[in-house]
Amino acid sequence: VIDLLFLVGLGLYLDLIPLRSLVALARCDKIIIDAYTSGPKYVVEELLKILKSTGKDVVLAQRFMLEGEGIESIVWESQDKDVCVAVVGDPMIATTHNALAVEAAASGIRAVVVPAPSIQCCAIGALGLLSYKMGKSVTVVSPKNGVVYEYPYEVIKSNLERGLHTLLLLEMDLERGYIMTPCEALKILFSIEQKRNEGVLEEQTRVVILSSIGTPSHRVCVRTLGELLQKCDNCGDPPYSIVILSKKLHPLEEEALKYAERGLLNMVPIEGSREVLEQVANILFR
Amino acid sequence: VIDLLFLVGLGLYLDLIPLRSLVALARCDKIIIDAYTSGPKYVVEELLKILKSTGKDVVLAQRFMLEGEGIESIVWESQDKDVCVAVVGDPMIATTHNALAVEAAASGIRAVVVPAPSIQCCAIGALGLLSYKMGKSVTVVSPKNGVVYEYPYEVIKSNLERGLHTLLLLEMDLERGYIMTPCEALKILFSIEQKRNEGVLEEQTRVVILSSIGTPSHRVCVRTLGELLQKCDNCGDPPYSIVILSKKLHPLEEEALKYAERGLLNMVPIEGSREVLEQVANILFR
Predict the structure, then answer these.
(1) What's CA A204's distance to the chain center, in Å?
(2) Residues A252 and A130 sit within 8 Å (Cβ to Cβ)
(3) Average confidence (pLDDT) over B3-10
(4) Position A38 confidence tier, pLDDT thresholds 50, 70, 90
(5) What is the DSSP string of A89-140?
(6) CA distance B53 to B75
(7) Phi, psi for residue B186 in degrees, rounded to 5
(8) Cross-chain Cβ contact A132/B132 below 8 Å
């Protein structure tokens, strides 16, 4: 018998979970839900309810449980039972889960990754952008001890020079209850522009704010940076992300963005998604 | 009543389909499966069988049905019934589906995208690479009328200059029965290097070949370009893709790659995935 540690993706909303993820959760003796790095709180809460109702041994993980010595303890547990670590979105986007997989493998435990739609893929699909026009993505974090982290500005600059869009992920620490808003993120980025003055972010730079992608509150706003600096609007509920558009869009992208903003191109769930998840979970878990 | 056109992602293997995709397929009066652009033939064939057994009106689309006038005809059909266009992987990776969504929206039909795990996400997860180290991806195509398309070489160069990995998708035309092999792709790329001599691809350049990612034949091979030029090996069955690694890897990536090659980090399905899909489809479709 080979010991297994499953890294299970949950997708961005209840019904975006792949079948394989459900099968993995059904099989695991212990389920640890990563509740602090990402995703809509609602998804974690509902999933927790459904899993508990099936009698599963399930816990919400705090940060310390998935880092440092927490990793060792999960690997230790995987040695006598199948353990699932469940993550909203895709399980291999955050470095901490990579470390977990590597640590398990180093102990001879097979780390099985179950992929799921993450914001990286969904942002492209929700906006109708062309995938080969996406540059490297980067996370905007709040200043630490007064020090502003300028790396996202450099990534945007480098992508713009190559005619590519930049997906910005915004810092989120659900344990502290902190969710960076798009307005906050743009203010930070613009303060870097004012300091460095390299002409990366200009008044006419086009910005897309994405809110609650893939959920019933799915919303997309296309603005110029100038408009947002004058009168900022977060464009809905968290989780948020931002795309800084390249200067030149493909005509198809231009059209798609227009429709995405009006909701004629969207990624909203089909009605009854919670019931469907419950129904399928009951069958697979019994 | 609003007319709907669903662009439905199927994921990379039968059980990687999100629940929402199944709900959409269950709801649609007409299902068109894109069978020529991508993905394992097996997934399309099995899905077709399952859908047909539930009495669905389902067709395999040839290329012409999803391009040019084919688009108009799908949009036309969406005006009096719900139509699903189902795509292996994520539905918004190929330009042709973007065009379809835009055309539908232009006619007042709501285009609903259902995302699913694509090779873009799965490659990162399968190899344990860090997502912020991924540059722009690009498709390698075979020479047309003797002309070699050099753009992939430029993308690799630009990514390497920034310390980023490059995901190479390989040309696939299932209608013609053509699937580019990794060996073929590397030969094309190396011929560009020999011509341009810019030192982008060297003997010691590290190459990862990914085959059948997310399926039971899932396999990963890490080689140097020199090794592969001397004695090439496609590392398993199609579908294929390649990652050209950046010169400097994060220690976690180095470890993860080692385990991915040995199968200690993997993305293989859990046994019985076909049966689970059939079971769930039967419930949702009845």
Answers:
(1) 27
(2) yes
(3) 95
(4) low
(5) B-TTSSHHHHHHHHHHHHTT-EEEEE----HHHHHHHHHT--GGGB---EEE
(6) 26
(7) -70, -35
(8) no
Q: Does B273 touch chain A (CB under 8 A)?
A: yes
A chain contacts of residue B270, beta-carbon cutoff 8 Å: 20, 23-24, 27, 112
Which chain B residue has its CA at the smallest distance from A16's CA? Answer: B18
- Strand ranges for chain B from DSSP E: 4-9, 30-34, 57-61, 83-87, 110-114, 138-140, 166-170, 172-173, 178-179, 206-211, 219-224, 240-244, 265-266
Q: Is this prediction's ipTM beyond 0.90?
A: yes
Chain B: residue whose CA lies nearest to A264:
B110
What is the C-alpha separation between A252 and B98, in angstroms, rounded? 7
Of A123, A208, A258, A222, whose CA–CA distance to B106 is shortest? A258
Name the β-bridge partners of A18: B18
Task: Check CB contact under 8 Å for A9 and B158.
Answer: no
CA A22, CA B18: separation in Å to the nearest integer? 10
Q: Could you tell me if A279 lies within 8 Å of chain B, comparing CB atoms? A: yes
Tokens of B129: 């690479």
Q: Which residues of B touch A9 (CB under 8 A)?
A: 117
Phi and psi (nearest 5°) for A240? -110, 155
Q: Which two tokens stand for residue B56?
A: 């669905």
Q: Residue A239: is the preceding peptide bond cis (ω within 30°)?
A: yes
Stretch among A158-172, B33-47, B65-79, B260-274 having the lowest mean pLDDT: B33-47
Q: Note whether A152 contacts B: Cβ–Cβ < 8 A.
A: no
CB atoms closer than 10 angstroms to residue A171:
15
Kindly state whether B60 is in contact with chain A, defined as any CB-CB distance less than 8 angstroms: no
pLDDT on residue A112: 97
User: CB under 8 Å to A31, separation ≥6 — which residues?
Assistant: A25, A51, A56, A57, A58, A59, A83, A84, A86
Rounded-to-integer distance, Cα B94 and Cα B102, Å: 13
